[in-house]
Amino acid sequence: MVLALFLLFLSSFPFACSASSPKYNALFCFGNSYSDTGNFNILVQGTVFDQLPYGITYFGHPNGRASDGRIPIDFIAAACSVLFHGRKNGAVATYFLTLISSITMALFILGEIGGNDYDYMLFSHKTIDYVKSYVPTVIDTINTAAESLLKQGVMYLMLPGLGPMGCTPIVLTIFASTNKSDYDSSGCLKIYNTIASYHTQLLSQAVTLLRAKYPQARIIFADYYGPVIAVLQTPELFG
């Protein structure tokens, strides 16, 4: 089902790395555990990501990814035929911007960003309304980061949204409810999904504005929310 999910994900936005799309020669990703191929383990020794069962279903051993196999960035790289060269130390960020102008055919991915912020607030017993009030601040931060890259000459930029938070095991466990009406037909907690859908809505609007402001660049909005919901609602279509 994981493979089917990401095949659907890759087909849900126009770049899709098809024969008619640009041939990317590199992929740079800034984000959280959805996109980290091992940098966190360099910064913090002895994390759970270096222990089984992480990595077991694809690599056969832990490799720093927050998954039992591959993460979204792996599927995107594979679809774009970009070779994996291993984890890179974050220290290169100090001179990274000086290299952007020479990487005209690189795809930059900014995100997923925001999920950890919302989770932290929820786990600190903040209300749903409080968390949602913070969403515009997160979107503004993403937008600022995107503009900093675009102003440096980045030509291909992808901004992923959030997956449905109310469907994640940690949210379902910590905020389990005895009220059946709190759950949707897929077993997800509806109220927590409203945070992710609101984030997705505002980010999509921000991407529209960025496209108008930087028409020379190809700016892609990657919907993480819709494909996951589709798999949960109609799993029989995805194996």
UniProtKB/TrEMBL annotation:
Protein name listed in UniProt: GDSL esterase/lipase
One example GO MF annotation: hydrolase activity, acting on ester bonds
UniProt keyword annotation of Transmembrane present: yes
Protein family (similarity comment): Belongs to the 'GDSL' lipolytic enzyme family.
InterPro entries (alphabetical): GDSL, SGNH_hydro_sf
Position of the signal peptide: 1-19
Organism: Carex littledalei
Residue ranges of the TM segments: 92-111
UniProt keywords, alphabetically: Glycoprotein, Membrane, Signal, Transmembrane, Transmembrane helix
One Pfam family this sequence matches: Lipase_GDSL
The keyword Transmembrane is annotated on this UniProt entry: yes
